[in-house]
Design a protein that fits this description.
CATH architecture of the largest domain in chain A: 3-Layer(aba) Sandwich
Mean pLDDT of chain A: 97
CATH class of the largest domain in chain A: Alpha Beta
Helix content of chain A: 25-40%
Number of helices of chain A: 6
CATH superfamily of the largest domain in chain A: Zn peptidases
Oligomer: homotetramer
CATH topology of the largest domain in chain A: Aminopeptidase
Largest sheet of chain A: 10 strands, mixed
Structural class of chain A: alpha+beta
Strand order of the largest sheet of chain A: 1-2-4-3-7-11-9-10-12-21
């Protein structure tokens, strides 16, 4: 059966001078195969991924794999433990506001340089192996810098060192109050149908700092450069996704089982699970390009009832939300309605009824299509 | 019809040196009758009461009252506006941790002294009127103190000045994730049946700083003292309640209508609404004494699924919650169950899945009875 | 020489399910003598005490003691690590606002009952020993409660178990922006002169939840009860102090040496340090009763220059602080002065220029005397 | 004399649905001249600029100007009022971590397009006027977007609308614990000597979101494009600076006078103050390019004494800071020293003794020169 290796990786030190670490669960199959990397809770309040990993572990303890699966739950020991009131302030470093999922490494110049070093006869396997090696050196050099680096970036680079060896990378997140959705790079659109996730966002080859981008952008650019150089396509077979599995601040073991199955289905299709026959559900899947995944910012402050629930489809002009203004309770300005600016699907909304002007009220699919 | 007087009361100044005020909506009936005081959102994240007041105002604009109803929504302009991450840090002053609902004034010595001043022939009405007047002087003297007072206490005393004139005081709150419940002083147990609220906590004559106590404790003690002095019962007819109307951080206009009706039902029974025939719902009501309303603190840290939902009845030993420990996902210590220590009704639970040891996990009715 | 025993005491678990512990440094002398307990940083931003303990340890490694000294630096591993912006939110539990230094155990009824059990012939040593034993049972019973207890209270009780065995208890704190001051129970006024601390507050026998009170109140009450019962004085020789050693959020190794020497001077006088000849400094010491240690709350919001520095003496009417109001920069209401309400010594002030109305601006000695 | 026009500009609404506004003090001289824009406290804890503006207003009330001076103190009414503990959480939006000084508008494509529209005969004045007009349209179009924008960005754009008309823009900031320093765009290096500020950072033409960049980058790029097109230099005479005037969280009226004088000296040199003869101080000024203004991140967690004070020059290997580790107080690992990685001037350091690994400990000048 699979071997399970368990370690802890030190990623930070707290103000008491104590190490803060991340648990690593590594399953190694008896047969060779792809490498898989799955992490959860880089945003501290997005905890459901830990349950998904728990369910994956139960499965992996009893079913053989080909290759290797590395599971990293609770991958942000700082962000998971910052309480501000009863909730977890998990999206950013409370000291400086840095988003915990924006400090991964990407250097276009390095990739161009590397592509230059690839000669026409080098095998895909050799390129992959060399690229990973040089990327690891790049990462290590930054981690070793004399002037140091910020906490979030340091955490990100330590995780990226683990992830960059993988062929399939899954970063498990939650939205605020949210329905299931997934970010899929455009070059592997077909993989979107391998998950049981009804809402799909297709990502361009643009790096904004997140883990999935830090995985797919380098391989994507390298693919393009080598393809163009050789005038024939090359495929490294590396894929990376961000899965948003419902709402933050809650866990459900049952939902975790569902999402674990969805991931196992994907891994089955990719040849990681030789004895599994799991097939993706026959379900409606809506997809948008990233530029059509739009944020609606409210332009007034007040107290909000979120009428449209995550997953709801609305026609232009239908009511998304109703806002109460406590200073006008006796007049017809007591309430005002926020309307859908166009046909849309509400994917997620802000988790608190109390909003200042300029709050991200909803994120919505617009100009979406059925997949 | 009723007259509506609208004002704003300054209760604080912010760091920009600007006044922060509270809106007052005062309905004055054409006929005399009791005075009613209703406030909401002293805890800034508990916003549903504002919707209830909105619904009350819609009703009061078109139905005559006897006496006066003073409505004070959003009564804490500081607490309502403190964001820490996406949620509202509304239970306590972020500077010093002071609970916004614990700084009201109560002075047993003053009440004893006042009771002493009551002679045997003084009418109930005269006693009430004198007591209110002297109480207002006590409050004003504190507000005028040369050395000043803390922000929360100052806010509390300004509100208490408004509330102390009333015969019926309702303080509208929400729990974290909560079912409806109400705090009722033991001396007016029967009033519990006048609200459409299925869970009732009976309060002793003990002051802990909250508004309802600051209302009922003085009248209760005065009643006892005068009764004992005269050897015959006296009844001032003053009642005060804290209503917990579901969960914080969300609003619902529909639920607000339900709770407004519940309050109107109470006011109908008290003779404030001459044309109303609203009757309390025929429903099951469970009640406990405050000492049997117990808090379950979790003794470990971890990530929690709240299995028991607010309102659920559990037998001793049934599972309240399941805790995930991310460091033991591969062993049978991955999860552990929190069991009901005795038969209970879960009233509310903590609103975040992430908990440190010593977190208030649940508050529960134990040794409850049907009302 | 002294033996040094080092352990870690688990006091909590974080949301990752990991133990949080406190380091214990226990020096045991070759000769018998009093027991000393010193802790620091129960308020997480008050870190200078850790440096003082560091300096004490350097001394204790090379100088013999009689009895035992237990040093507990960084005694609040939760509070020390809560960042909110660049500063440490260390005074209260960020989840619920509970002050980390208000949850110690004190039960007057238990002490009365215990005093009742003391017979006329029981030796002081036997009473002390029995009282400690029963107190430990009380503490343990609370720690074992089925329904659990809050995080701050649990931490407090674990520390109180360590402290209650000691004859001399020192709780090391810092003020916001502060000069050195010390809280001394009235029954050991003379001990105030044994420290090199220029400002002294004499404490009555009233319990408000802090460690020093949780130490001296029980012994004080027991002393009074037994004395009154026997009609002759008894002295248990237990003393407890809170030392405020300058400002929070900063450390200085040099100041730490000064305060360590001050504590060693006290311990010398108490017979703990047989080879030490340290003598208290000949310095001016000002003292007040607690009721004359007054807080000045500002009654407006704005931006404040703190004119009076900690330690400054002011006459009534002199300027403590100047407030800027940004909305009136062009008029003579641009600035306003906060004046001393009476003759006073400024002991500490708020650490931020930005204040809301109702902020604790200064704490001051009034009606003080030279010691 | 100068006319003083005072208004308030609404920039946001809070959760109570109330407008939050910014005071504008506009001095209009009798004679024409340059336009000056000065704002302060975009970062809410950096309050000293408000005092500087107060002092400037005192001067401008009694001394004639040429042109116009617009003063905008307390320009972030949200950030100024977010308390988290005793300090002000003023650098970023507490909801999402967005830095309040990173959302200004800059669009290179638009500037290229505009440059294209400039013909060879157009006067400098006409280009300036047209560019401002079109820029205002760009800003307004974004403010009018149907889907809205985030709170910080909205605030930034409202301020940018005010600032973009000015010839001289000064953004007043403070560092954490900091000595005076100023950011100066490389194209006006000489202006660095017009302020009484001893540390100067020269900025390249790179936009990172801050106000000064949002002012100088467009003009700088436009200058380059038109100069290159016409093959002869053009000078729009627009300058923008960020002044860091000491430490956050404190104000001093005396220091405010000093910095107001420094600004008046600059404005004198620029012809805004016809009757002023103020001359820059004869002082040592050290300067670096932005790339040599380096951040030292600490690689361990612990409690820190900041040995090097802001303004101190250190040789490579000298001690910047000493770190205490509470778990090793008995060993020689109790303290460790952070050394200067090269010759440097310490400009600012972190304001709290308690640091996690990855904290920005110091910002330093390296490879600096005397100006």
């Amino acid at each position: 059966m699979n071997k399970l290796l368990k370690e802890h990786l030190v990623v930070a030190q707290n103000a008491s001078g104590r190490n803060m670490n991340v648990p690593l669960y590594r399953f190694v199959g008896e047969k060779p195969g792809p490498k898989v990397y799955i992490q959860s809770s880089i945003h501290g309040a997005e905890v459901q991924g830990n349950v998904v990993i728990y369910q994956l572990i139960q499965w992996l303890k009893t079913h053989p794999i080909c290759g290797e699966v590395l599971l990293v739950p609770n991958c942000n020991p700082v962000g998971t433990n910052i309480k501000a009131g009863e909730y977890t302030l998990g999206r950013f470093d409370p000291v400086n506001g840095t988003n915990w999922n924006r400090g991964y490494f990407y250097d276009e110049a390095f990739i161009h340089e590397f592509a230059h070093s690839v000669n026409d006869n080098e095998t895909t396997q050799s390129i992959k192996s060399r690229f990973r090696q040089e990327m690891q050196q790049q990462l290590q050099a930054r981690l070793d810098a004399v002037w140091g680096m910020g906490l979030a970036q340091h955490l990100n680079l330590k995780l990226q060192q683990l992830a960059f060896d993988a062929d399939y990378v899954l970063d498990l997140h939650n939205g605020p109050v949210s329905t299931r959705h997934i970010y899929v790079p455009e070059y592997v659109k077909d993989s979107a149908r391998l998950f049981n996730i009804p809402h799909v966002i297709f990502m361009p080859n643009v790096f904004s700092g997140a883990l999935d981008e830090a995985m797919f952008c380098p391989w994507w650019l390298l693919t393009d450069l080598v393809t163009s150089k050789r005038q024939q396509p090359i495929d490294f077979g590396v894929e990376a996704f961000t899965l948003e599995m419902g709402s933050q601040e809650v866990i459900s073991f049952q939902d975790g089982q569902y999402d674990a199955n969805s991931i196992l289905t994907f891994l089955t299709a990719k040849g990681c699970l030789p004895h599994s026959a799991m097939m993706p559900e026959n379900m409606s899947r809506k997809a948008v390009s990233l530029s059509h995944y739009k944020t609606l910012y409210i332009q007034q402050g007040g107290i909000v009832e979120y009428i449209a629930k995550p997953g709801d489809s609305l026609k232009k002009g239908e009511v998304l939300a109703r806002v109460l203004n406590v200073d006008n309770l006796d007049s017809d300005k007591a309430t005002s309605d926020i309307l859908a600016p166009c046909d849309l699907v509400a994917i997620l909304h802000f988790p608190s009824a109390s909003v200042l002007s300029g709050t991200q009220l909803y994120k919505c699919f617009t100009d979406y299509c059925e997949l």
